[in-house]
Amino acid sequence: MKAIWAAAALAVMSLGLSGCASTLPDPGAAAPVAAAPVGSPVARHGALSIAGNRVVDASGQPVTLRGMSLFWSQWAPQYYTAQTVDWLAQDWKVTVVRAAIAAEGNDSALFHMERELAKASVVIEAAVANGIYVVVDWHAHRNHPEHAEYFLSEIARRYGHLPNLIYEPFNEPLREGVDWSRDVKPYHERMIAAIRAHDPDNLIIVGSPSWSQDVDIAAADPLAGENIGYTLHYYAATHKDGLRAKGDAALAAGLALMVTEFGIVEATGNGPIDRESSDAWWDWAEANGVSWMAWSIGDRDETSAALVPGAPVAGWREEHLTEGGRILRDRIRTANIADGY
């Protein structure tokens, strides 16, 4: 949830495209289709879809993706590189990477749309080269529909023909004053229409109020359409049985879930690592076939960061990883190698 970042962004948030850079980028050509490397996750599974409450591959078999989220793109831009994605795919054995494209604050896509689109493109194209999946996350806590619609439309127009792509149109809607049916659902309907104008079938994973925790409320009034799933965010030292019960309720109601962001620490992104709660969450996700992406590939001086301050963009040795980074690398490698990656 990283509530500290939400509070910091409040004073500088933008409300419309008039607050964007003076000109938005000209449309670029769609990216060419490239064959996924032999044996890679995308070569093995192809385009993903949703059947019932599960994510399945092109053969209809359930798929659980495991990987990492990059940190806010305006605060850790050095890791939005092909080298970082290559290292995560080849050394950490991730099957998915999440690009958290910042949509809060002055130094974000709200004011630097072309720059942030370029960062997303680097991550997408590196994921394609490695044959892994990529979640493109509009990393916002507040509703910026004009900006989000433009960004997501451009991503869909350029890359929607690729099987690697997964959309996350709203990272973490806030709790106070935010209602699923009144506020968040209509926003998602608008974003889904914008994406589907260019990309008819790739997964769209939507957020819910209370920092993407109200999946049970969304389940009572779900979105219409194909291949729409719901994200559930947790931080293990803060969120425990009560939030898993909300996830259970959503699954029982037929929603497909992904954990596109979680931490093994507190919801602030800091504090001690909670191994017991982290293991309980991992057991729950694996038992339910729920994909997961950990927060985060960044070098900020906090316990949720996988890298120590000043870590290089790739080639990380043990001394470049925090305690959390070592735990996450081991967990991802162990699970994905066991699945044959």
Automatic annotation (TrEMBL):
Keywords: Glycosidase, Hydrolase, Signal. The keyword Lipid metabolism does not apply. GO terms for molecular function: hydrolase activity. Residues 56-299 form the Glycoside hydrolase family domain. Transmembrane segments: none annotated. Residues 1-21 form the signal peptide. The keyword Signal applies. InterPro entries: GH, Glyco_hydro_5. Belongs to the glycosyl hydrolase 5 (cellulase A) family. This is Glycoside hydrolase family 5 protein. It comes from Alteraurantiacibacter lauratis.
